[in-house]
Amino acid sequence: MNIKTTLAGIGTILVAIGAALKAVFDGDPSTNVDLAQTVAQITIGVGLIAARDAKPVDSKEPKL
Predict the structure, then answer these.
(1) In the chain, where the domains are located
(2) Angle between helices 35-50 and 3-25 (to 10 degrees)
(3) What single DSSP character describes residue 54?
(4) How confident is the model at residue 14, as a pLDDT?
(5) pLDDT at 29
(6) What is the mean pLDDT of residues 17-44?
(7) Alpha carbon distance 33, 42 (integer Å)
(8) CA–CA gap between residue 17 and residue 22 (Å, rounded)
(9) How far apart are CA 12 and CA 10, in angstroms?
(10) 50: which residues sit within 8 A by CB, 6+ positions away?
(11) Most buried residue among 19, 29, 58, 62 by CB atoms closer than 10 A?
């Protein structure tokens, strides 16, 4: 787990939720929540949180 990837995932989820809340509470009745986009962004955020980052390459092994 890399802290940068985890923070990116948390940030993505917060932005998705913030955009949905803004659409609900902006006072404009013609503004609707884009549910597909919100779910997609939350899914991406969860994927970033769960991602396993690549391990550093051992410098002793020959590169192919």
Answers:
(1) 3-50
(2) 160
(3) P
(4) 97
(5) 87
(6) 94
(7) 14
(8) 9
(9) 5
(10) 9
(11) 19
Assess contact for 16 and 45: CB atoms under 8 A: yes
Distance CA 43, CA 51 (A): 12
**Side chain identity at 20, as an amino acid letter?**
A
Instruction: Give tens-digit pLDDT for 33-63.
Output: 999 999 999 999 999 999 977 676 665 655 6
Task: Tell me the average pLDDT across 16-33.
Answer: 92
Both tokens of 40, joined, read 């997609």
Q: Cα–Cα distance between 14 and 38 in angstroms, integer? A: 10
Tokens 């396993």 found at: 52
> Which of the pair, 6 or 56, is modelled with greater confidence?
6
CA angle 13, 43, 15 (to 5 degrees): 20
Give me the pLDDT at residue 2, please: 84
